[in-house]
Specification:
Oligomer: single chain
Distance between the termini: 13 Å
Radius of gyration: 12 Å
Helix content: 40-55%
Low-confidence stretches: none
Largest sheet: none
Shape: globular
């Protein structure tokens, strides 16, 4: 069973993963352009999300993710799916 991660939880996970202060990882920051997340870092971040009790969105949902808020929305949408 998964737990719902808040956007703040996701910001904390991302900041810790990227080694950046929390205040430099905002919900509207673009993962690639602003935060420098590449495909390997995204994979590692998704593993951390899963280990924290979240769910990994589908590849289709991930293809639409641009910002950290988009990633949160994709996680929540996947978590709410029947």
């Amino acid at each position: 069973m998964s737990i719902s991660l808040t956007l703040q939880d996701l910001r904390r996970l991302a900041a810790a993963h990227l080694g950046q202060p929390l205040e430099e990882v905002g919900s509207q920051h673009r993962l690639v352009e602003d935060l420098g997340v590449d495909s390997l870092e995204m994979h590692a971040l998704l593993i951390q999300i899963e280990e924290a009790g979240g769910v990994i969105p589908s590849p289709e949902a991930l293809s639409r993710v641009i910002t950290l808020a988009d990633l949160h929305d994709a996680i929540i949408a996947h978590d709410a799916a029947p």
